[in-house]
Amino acid sequence: MDSSVAQAAARCIPLLTFSRRRIKPDRLEAFKSVYEVFAQAVFDSTAGVKAIFAFPEPDDELAYWHVFWSRDVERLSFNDIDGFSELLSLYASTAEDPDVVEVYGGWNQSTVEAAKAMPWLTHNFHTPLAGYMKADGMGQSGPPMFGFTRRKVKPGMLEGLVASFPKVCELWYEKANGGILCATVSRDPTDPDVVHDLRIMANKEAYMAHADKADEPLSAAIQTWFAHYDERFPIIGELFAASPNDDAFHSSSIVKVEKRPEMATFHWGAGGGMLGPMPDMNKGDCE
After folding, report:
1. pLDDT digits over 30-52, tens only?
2. What would you report as the CA-atom Rg of the chain, rounded to the nearest whole angstrom?
3. For the whole model, what pTM was predicted?
4. What fold is seen in the domain 3-272?
5. How far apart are CA 85 and CA 24, in angstroms?
């Protein structure tokens, strides 16, 4: 990534958390009600929060995927918002059996200290190996797409992957009128050959542009970068988008892979089981 892109990406890096939270068996309906009200209150009262939502896991109604995006990189909880204590009481995790929260973006030591006050959660703090996360939505209309994937890297190829990804990011940063909002990779905390590869797109148009095979420099850069992944293993993860059943969201138009991605997909809106407000990637932005 050239210095100008790197400098722009480093300004006001937001906080992004992703977690699978378990709900107490007899409190599911209460959880849905309390979370809906609480998430909306956080969203409405905090200009820096662009996303706070949850979706049920397809095969387990007592597990919900939670996503949170905030400009305030040190704030992991909202105990000053009505309903916080009640919401905590509805989760099944304990200090002896914690849920896991993946923490990405611009966290700092104060964020780490804040996490220590929540022993019922294990926070995995990810240090980006390469990539960027924009603080604003570039004025692009939504709905956005969030993708959280885990990918297997060929043994001994992580260094090459990290070296090749910045060129891809340099090309993505300005593409689609800046609508490719996040592209970052970090090491998995338990498997040295797995990386967490994140994407946030302002809309489907940005997603399609990120795999534009008519863009020859981009296609070449993606081929070089992708050669470091172990294609014997599928890409796994979770995708939150307007049309998750669209085949375009499950494959690359540039790289043909041996294993089809295994993605749990979620559709915006109450019909898909969504709790919380629609994310707004332009919320609170200023010139």
Report:
1. 999 999 999 999 999 999 999 99
2. 18
3. 0.92
4. Alpha-Beta Plaits (3.30.70)
5. 15
SS (H, E, C) the chain: CCHHHHHHHHCCCCEEEEEEEEECHHHHHHHHHHHHHHHHHHHHHCCCEEEEEEEEECCEEEEEEEEEEECCCCCCCCCCCCCHHHHHCCECCCCCCCEEEEEEECCCHHHHHHHCCCCCEEEEECCCCEEEECCCCCCCCCCCEEEEEEEEECCCCHHHHHHHHHHHHHHHHHHHHHCEEEEEEEECCCCCCEEEEEEEECCHHHHHHCCCCCCHHHHHHHHHHHCCECCCCCCEEEEEECCCCCHHHHCCCCCCCCCCCEEEEEECCHHHCCECCCCCCCCCCCC
Give tens-digit pLDDT for 207-255.
999 999 899 999 999 999 999 999 999 999 999 998 655 555 555 545 5
What pairs with residue 236 in β-bridges?
150, 262
Distance between first and last Cα of the chain: 24
